[in-house]
Amino acid sequence: MQATSRERRSDATRRAILTAARERFAEDGYDRATIRAIAADAGIDPSMVMRYFGSKERLFALAADFDLRLPDLTATPRDRIGHRIAGHVIDRWDGDETLMALLRAAVTHPAAAERMRQIFATQLEPAIATLAPPDT
Questions:
Q1: How confident is the model at residue 2 (pLDDT cuts 50, 70, 90)?
Q2: How far apart are the first and last CA of the chain?
Q3: Distance CA 131, CA 3 (A)
Q4: How many angstroms separate the CA atoms of 121 and 37, rounded?
Q5: Does 1.10.357.10 match the CATH number of domain 2-129?
Q6: Which of 11, 33, 71, 128 is deepest in the core (most CB within 10 A)?
Q7: Does residue 45 contact residue 39 with C-beta atoms inside 8 Å?
Q8: Domain boundaries, the chain
Q9: What share of the chain is helix, strand, coil (3-state, %, to 5)?
Q10: How confident is the model over 105-117, as a mean pLDDT?
């Protein structure tokens, strides 16, 4: 039973760090956000951030986990698919601190740019692939 209590505290600490990281990255961007500031926001010692996440880069990658929640595009006319996707992504960016942090960081930090490419590749590419005409 003691392990379960410890696991719950561990999960709560991890969630607090990720929440603080999302807010700090959104506010300061990747380069200016520090492990110390994130730890202070989470109310823990900076060594705990490193214990749970190992590096600022790994913390960012996990904090920047984002679901684009793409709409079903199957009924969208082919000539409107690009417009619909672009509008959807812009709507998702509006007011979402996680995606805003990712966008802001991607401009100056290669790892953040790569994370953004991964999100779009793993979520957007399959959605578009289902709309492609069959090979002839």
A1: low
A2: 61
A3: 48
A4: 31
A5: yes
A6: 33
A7: yes
A8: 2-129
A9: 75, 0, 25
A10: 84
Q: By three-state DSSP, how is residue 69 classified?
A: coil
Cβ 134 vs Cβ 78: under 8 Å = no
| Structure tokens that stand for 5 in this block | 């209590």
Which pTM was predicted? 0.68
54: left (phi over 0), alpha (psi -120 to 50) or beta: left
Is 68 in contact with 123 (CB distance < 8 Å)?
A: yes
pLDDT at 1: 47
CA distance 97 to 27: 8
How far is Cα 66 from Cα 61, in angstroms, rounded to an integer? 10
Q: What is the pLDDT of residues 60-80, one digit of tens each?
A: 888 887 788 888 888 899 899
Q: Are 98 and 115 in contact, with CB atoms under 8 Å apart?
A: no
Which amino acid appears at position 12 of this protein?
A
- pLDDT (0 to 100) of residue 6: 66
CA distance 4 to 129: 43
